[in-house]
Structure formats: structure tokens, C-alpha cells
Amino acid sequence: MSTSIPSQSTGAAASPVAYSTESISTPPSSSTTSTSSLSSSNGRLQKFLENDPSRTGFDPATSWWMNYFRILSGQVTPEGIHHYREWRYRENEARDCKRCEDARDYMLKYSPIVRFMAEKTEQLGGHKLDGSNIVCARCPARVTETPDGEMRIVRQGGGFHPGFGILLCANEMRDKKHLEDNLAHEMVHAYDHLRWKVDWDDLKHAACSEIRASMLSGECRWTRESLTRGNWTLTQQFQRCVRMRAIQSLTARPKCKDDVHATKVVNEVWDSCFSDTRPFDDIYK
Predict the structure, then answer these.
(1) Number of compact structural domains in the chain
(2) Is 100 in contact with 139 (CB distance < 8 Å)?
(3) Under a CB-based contact definition with an 8 Å cutoff, are residues 80 and 51 in contact?
(4) What's the CA gap between 129 and 56, in Å, rounded?
(5) 104 Cβ neighbours under 8 A, 6+ residues apart
């Protein structure tokens, strides 16, 4: 089994309508897969999910700074780093949720894009967006296994559900600006659902909303792409960011086979959806 464990951090779609912050889908199962193969696969996954300090180098019985030093000095495996990160998130859950809720309330009062989207959503007959339907919570990472035996870590930044509202993953929010981008992204999904009665099981519908959410939320602005993510291109940087994030989000959906399938669907709806900036007159940057 490969020891390379790429960690993804754009939010994975846990439901048909959740937002994926850079997500990877669970590989589709095959009807011809043997019982022994499934048992072997489940065994590898179970082994990964159960931390063994002697194998990973991470020991929760040791102080966090000692574990962090071991990570910096290369004494912890990628698997151990994953377990360390989840351990720290559990330890700091109350702090992270309080910080997230304070930033959420601030954005609902003072953020131009959040206030604008809240107003437009309410005008369409939606509930007033506030602390009762914009919830901060800790979102554990999901671990999936690719057909070649490589473990993939899928992290969720937030989500939208028509029946419950918006989820903000408190443990994944770097700062207020990051939360603002995530909240605006989910608000675009809420607006689209009310405005066009989106069928979230239809990949074309979902792809269109993902394109619009990445385009209109501000998460693909030049400073975010270049300074935070380190993506520098001379031309079409904004378009590439929107396309990439839409593909990543779509890939995490159960009905999407893989990234090739997601790319095909995004390309099919790209022209019409990328040109639609409603409810804005122009792209918010």
C-alpha cells in the first residue's frame, strides 16, 4: 500500500448538496469485486483508522508540543499526522466553535457579500439566515481508499442542506476572511436552491451551482489564489480556479464516477453557468 496520503482541505461533500473544499470521492464499488478483496480493503482501511503509536509515531498520551516537534523532525508518518490533526481538533472543539460563531455573527452584521446574499435569499421566501440555521461544528475528516490501495483524506469546509441550512466546519476555518468565503459559497447554493429548485441529485444542476458558488463567493479572487494557495498564472487564473473547485466538489458526489466524469459535466454547463452572475450585477471580487 502506498504511504503517500495527500490531505485535501476545500470541504468534502458529505451529502448530495454539501460543499467540497477540495474533495475526493470514494471510489465506486465493482459488482465483480470478490469477498476476499473487500475484506482485504476493509482491513487496510481499519488499520489506518486505528492509530498505533509504534507505527505512526504519534502518541496522544504525549503532550501536543512534543508530538508537533516529532512531526517537524520527520519522526511521524503521514498517517500519524492525520491522527494528530484530528486529535487536536477534538481537543480544541469548544474553542474553534466559539471562534467560528463569533466570526459568523460578525459577518452577518458587517460583511457586504454575506448581508447581500442573506437579503436576496430571504426575498425568495427563504428563512432568515442567522445562528439558528448557520451552524458551526467540528467536521471530522473522512478517509477513503483508491483502487490502488492509496489512502485519501477528505476534509470538509462547509455544506448546505435544503432542510437544515448551512454548516460551517469550525476546525477548518483559518480566519474570518476564510469563513466569509465559505459562508458566501453556501449562501449561493441556498439562493440557487430557492431560485431554480435545484435537483441536487442531477450532476448538471449541482455542477452549475458549484461553478456559480466558486465564482461569486470571492474564494477565487487573485489574492486568495496567489497568496494563500500559491497558484500563480499569467492568464485565466480566475477561470481555472472556479473550474478546478467545481470539479473537485462534483467529484465527491455519490453519482460522480471520478474526476474525468466531473470534468465532462462541468464542461457541459460551463458557458451558461459561468456567465450567470445573479443575484449580482457583476462578479464580486
Answers:
(1) 1
(2) no
(3) yes
(4) 43
(5) 131, 134, 136, 168, 179, 183
Residue 19, domain member (yes or no): yes
The set of cell numbers assigned to 125 is 421566501
Q: Rounded CA gap, 151 and 77, in Å? A: 13
- Which domain range does residue 259 map to? 7-27+93-274
Q: What is the CA radius of gyration of the chain?
A: 20
**Per-residue b or e along 39-72, where b marks 16 or more CB atoms closer than 10 Å to that residue's CB:** eebeeeeeebeebeeeebbbbeeeeeeebeebbe
Would 279 be classed as within a structural domain?
A: no
pTM given for the model: 0.79
Give 122-129 contacts, CB < 8 A, sequence gap 24+. 124/191, 124/194, 124/195, 125/194, 126/190, 126/194, 127/165, 129/165, 129/166, 129/187, 129/190
β-pair partners for 186: none
For residue 60, is it within any domain? no
Specify whether the CB–CB gap between 184 and 117 falls below 8 A.
Answer: yes
Per-residue pLDDT of the chain (285 residues; tens, 9 = 90+): 333 323 333 333 333 333 333 332 222 333 334 444 445 567 777 778 889 999 999 999 999 999 999 999 999 999 999 999 999 999 999 999 999 999 999 999 999 999 999 999 999 998 899 999 999 999 999 887 766 777 778 888 999 999 999 999 999 999 999 999 999 999 999 999 999 999 999 999 999 999 999 999 988 886 555 445 455 555 578 899 999 999 989 988 888 888 899 999 999 999 999 999 999 988 765
User: Which pLDDT value is given to residue 46?
Assistant: 79
Helix (H) or strand (E) holding 154: strand 151-154
Task: Give the residue from 276, 78, 166, 256 showing the smallest Cα distance to 248.
Answer: 256
In a domain? residue 241: yes
Active site residues: 186
Nearest alpha carbon to residue 25 among 207, 245, 250: 250
